[in-house]
Design brief:
273 residues; mainly alpha; two-stranded antiparallel ribbon; 60% helix; 8% strand; globular
Length: 273
């Protein structure tokens, strides 16, 4: 029991240090404005990524954390995407997946995105896709220096207050502040706004799918297989040619293949006399 108490005290001290660093980091506070993202996910992501300015696009941190799908393609065949590559920090990838499980329970565009993917691919792949979306969202928030647009301010304030208490701030337990009813009404109004944003996202996706033509070919290289087939048909329709290079003028002239012309003459039916 004394050994367990010693370990608990050591864990509490480490959590206190993490909370103090997170309170002093504007980037960590900005990532925590996303509903469902706690200090562990924000600190793990920042520790794995480092300086966000070294990533020029949102695809680079996704590939850096191993959340991008593997692509298999041979020749002109259509490209096929498989499982995620799982490169980079496994702890950061785990933190994003665990945060995604909590994010999809909160009303908002991310839950609508999760439900749309889950209807086609299942729960597991939809959670990983939401984790990838979280990585893209974190990159956008950090590069633009903005908080999450669909945040819930009362929930963010509650997370920051719990973080302050964990860092060593005094609690107000036993003090009657008279703000419980007001906070509950604010929380309910913010959830209604988040639900409206979720409905708006679903309507936008349905309108885009109704107006956009159906995609053909592979998702990675659209139209590639059909272009290859058209080129093959064109090569088969034309007669074979042989190139003869003139070394003096360095120009190529096309001449008919004599073996092909002899074959055609043999196949022609002779006229009866």
């Amino acid at each position: 029991m004394r050994h367990i108490e010693f370990l608990d005290s050591e864990i509490a001290e480490v959590e206190r240090l993490i909370a103090r660093d997170a309170l002093g980091s504007p980037d960590a506070r900005r990532l925590m404005t996303v509903p469902g993202v706690n200090v562990i996910c924000a600190a793990t992501f920042l520790a794995a990524i480092g300086d966000i300015r070294r990533f020029r696009s949102s695809r680079q941190p996704v590939a850096y954390l191993g959340l991008d799908p593997r692509v298999r393609q041979s020749g002109s065949e259509p490209a096929r995407s498989g499982r995620i590559s799982k490169r980079g920090s496994a702890s950061a990838r785990w933190a994003l997946v665990e945060a995604a499980r909590s994010v999809v329970r909160q009303p908002g565009p991310l839950r609508a995105f999760y439900e749309r993917i889950r209807a086609r691919r299942g729960h597991g792949k939809a959670v990983v896709a939401a984790a990838r979306k979280l990585a893209v969202l974190f990159w956008c928030l950090l590069t633009r220096g903005q908080d999450y647009a669909h945040q819930q301010p009362s929930l963010t304030a509650k997370k920051l207050r719990l973080l302050e208490i964990r860092a060593g701030a005094p609690t107000l337990k036993g003090t009657n502040t008279g703000l419980f009813a007001t906070r509950e009404r604010m929380r309910h109004a913010e959830r209604e706004l988040a639900q409206q944003a979720e409905v708006s996202y679903k309507r936008m996706v349905s309108d885009r799918q109704a107006t956009t033509a159906k995609k053909t070919g592979a998702s990675v290289t659209p139209g590639r297989p059909f272009e290859a087939l058209e080129g093959q048909a064109t090569r088969q329709a034309t007669s074979p040619r042989r190139l003869r290079f003139d070394t003096s003028s360095a120009r190529a002239h096309t001449q008919p293949n004599p073996s092909t012309d002899d074959d055609r003459r043999r196949r022609r039916p002779r006229a009866r006399k």
